[in-house]
């Protein structure tokens, strides 16, 4: 390693070596490469308001492959940028939770390019906040307990999505004559070989995670996929849906797992540039579109801040004041992540806490990120393999990641009644309403109201009054339209 590279990346200054950086880059890639499989299954199989695949594919297979290509592309480019510009061993990829929110809660009301346009705008706003140094001020406006509750709610949201996609939790038809909206398995029982694959995958992934095995999630997905291929070959459970019509409640929830015929192919990057920045404003209204942008911004905003500080502390790189040296560069690249994620139609990208795997291997500089990013770019050429993975093999990862996020609940002060209700509303309403923005809005509004009646209004930051007011208008949009006779 040359002296110039050493000085640029601060390798010696951070008491690292090239070997450690390479090991760290490899570890981070294997710890988070599951996103190349999960994001296509979340985005590539969802449908827009017209019932068409939101990612633009002619069928599930082409849609999933297209999403896999842009997922790997954006992760690769942005992680390398983080290494070269941010100079930290932080990797970037599509944010779990936000991709589900966009696929289920936003694109079902708009088109996918319109949804990506909102992501693009959110990224540009964050970039302005970074450049004007307003981001830290806004950070202080939201109480720490509510920031934690947002993470907990997204975790619960992921768990529910995983259980629904695997068929463990299913919607009960209205014809059942019951007020219970969801049920357990098929008629209250777990039936079918695909369910067995999910259960085995969940147990295996959980064991690997608690044992802190490097690449635990990837190992879990690959092992479950192999089991799924064997189960399909031996017992032939077949698909649960054919041409949009249910055929077997005990079949595979998504694609039928079979041994791949193609291992390598040129990446499908047709989704790049499929973005409409302002179409959603005309489709769902200005207020609704702005609230979605705000929800995306808030989730990206605080998730990144917490992740960056935590990872820097793990690497023992915080300065004497507990601050992240050069955090402006890191936050700038992260703001680019949302912007470029929208422009490439891969969904909003963010800094990944799984970067801790590389830091645990000794990585301390941006060289590790360059290694990780290069591996993501190589992964673009193996996108056809994602079509082999059924939901039942991939969703255990969603459940495990979600539960890990829920563990943050221990940091919430439940002895303060002014925090208890807002935190619970924030965390619980996200999965129950399938909406991150609803949870955030309910939490902020209830926090402001309770603090006022506790006689602690002075603790409420001016920016919090504004955001709570915007959410109140958002929730009251329909009544206000009726009151003023607006169609």
Task: State the gist of this model.
It contains 20 helices and six strands. The chain has 487 residues and is mainly alpha-helical.
Walk me through the structure.
The protein is 61% helix and 3% strand. With 487 residues, it is mostly helical. The strands form three sheets. The protein has a two-stranded antiparallel sheet with strand order 1-6. The protein has a two-stranded antiparallel sheet with strand order 2-3. Strands 4-5 form a two-stranded antiparallel ribbon. The longest helix has 29 residues, at 286-314. The protein is globular, with a radius of gyration of 22 Å. The chain starts with a helix and ends with a helix.
Give the tags:
487 residues, mainly alpha, two-stranded antiparallel ribbon, 20 helices, 3% strand
By oligomeric state, this entry counts as single chain
Q: Give the helix level as a range of percent.
A: 55-70%
Rounded Rg: 22 Å
Helix-strand sequence: HHHHEHHHHEEHHEEHHHEHHHHHHH
The gross shape turns out to be: globular
Tell me the distance between the termini: 67 Å
Main pleated sheet: 2 strands, antiparallel
How many DSSP helices?
20
The beta-strand count equals: 6
Contiguous runs where pLDDT drops below 50 for at least 5 residues: none
The secondary structure category is mainly alpha
What's the rounded overall pLDDT mean?
82
User: Within the largest sheet, what's the order of strands?
Assistant: 1-6
Q: How much strand? A: under 5%
């Amino acid at each position: 390693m040359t002296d110039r590279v050493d000085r640029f990346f601060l390798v010696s200054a951070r008491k690292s070596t090239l070997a450690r950086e390479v090991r760290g880059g490899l570890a981070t890639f294997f710890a988070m490469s599951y996103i190349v499989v999960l994001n296509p299954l979340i985005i590539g199989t969802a449908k827009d308001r017209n019932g068409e695949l939101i990612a633009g594919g002619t069928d599930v297979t082409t849609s999933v492959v297209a999403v896999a290509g842009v997922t790997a592309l954006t992760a690769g480019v942005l992680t390398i940028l983080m290494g070269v510009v941010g100079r930290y061993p932080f990797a970037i990829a599509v944010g779990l939770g936000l991709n589900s929110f966009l696929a289920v809660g936003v694109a079902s009301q708009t088109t996918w390019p319109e949804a990506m346009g909102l992501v693009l705008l959110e990224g540009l706003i964050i970039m302005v906040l970074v450049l004007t140094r307003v981001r830290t001020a806004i950070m202080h406006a939201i109480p720490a307990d509510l920031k934690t509750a947002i993470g907990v709610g997204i975790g619960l949201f992921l768990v529910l999505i995983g259980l629904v996609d695997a068929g463990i939790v299913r919607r009960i038809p209205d014809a059942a004559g019951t007020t219970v909206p969801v049920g357990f398995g098929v008629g209250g029982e777990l039936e079918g070989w695909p369910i067995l694959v999910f259960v085995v995958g969940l147990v295996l992934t959980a064991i690997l995670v608690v044992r802190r095995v490097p690449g635990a999630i990837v190992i879990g997905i690959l092992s479950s996929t192999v089991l799924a291929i064997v189960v399909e070959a031996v017992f032939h459970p077949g698909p649960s849906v054919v041409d949009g019509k249910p055929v077997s409640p005990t079949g595979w929830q998504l694609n039928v797992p079979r041994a791949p015929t193609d291992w390598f192919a040129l990446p499908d990057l047709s989704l790049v540039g499929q973005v409409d920045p302002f179409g959603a404003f005309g489709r769902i209204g200005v207020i609704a579109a702005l609230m979605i942008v705000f929800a995306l911004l808030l989730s990206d905003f605080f998730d990144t801040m917490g992740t960056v500080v935590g990872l820097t502390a793990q690497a023992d790189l915080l300065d004497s004041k507990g601050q992240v040296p050069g955090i402006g560069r890191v936050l700038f690249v992260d703001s680019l992540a949302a912007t470029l994620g929208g422009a490439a139609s891969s969904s909003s990208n963010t800094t990944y806490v799984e970067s801790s795997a590389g830091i645990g291997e000794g990585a301390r500089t941006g060289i590790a990120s360059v290694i990780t990013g290069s591996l993501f770019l190589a992964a673009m050429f193996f996108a056809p393999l994602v079509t082999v993975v059924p939901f039942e093999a991939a969703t255990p990862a969603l459940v495990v990641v979600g539960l890990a996020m829920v563990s943050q609940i221990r940091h919430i002060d439940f002895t303060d009644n002014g925090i208890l209700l807002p935190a619970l509303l924030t965390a619980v309403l996200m999965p129950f309403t399938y909406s991150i923005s609803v949870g955030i809005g309910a939490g902020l509004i209830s926090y402001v109201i309770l603090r006022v009646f506790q006689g602690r209004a002075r603790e409420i930051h001016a920016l919090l009054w504004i955001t709570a007011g915007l959410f109140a208008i958002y929730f009251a949009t329909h009544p206000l339209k009726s009151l003023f006779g607006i169609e």
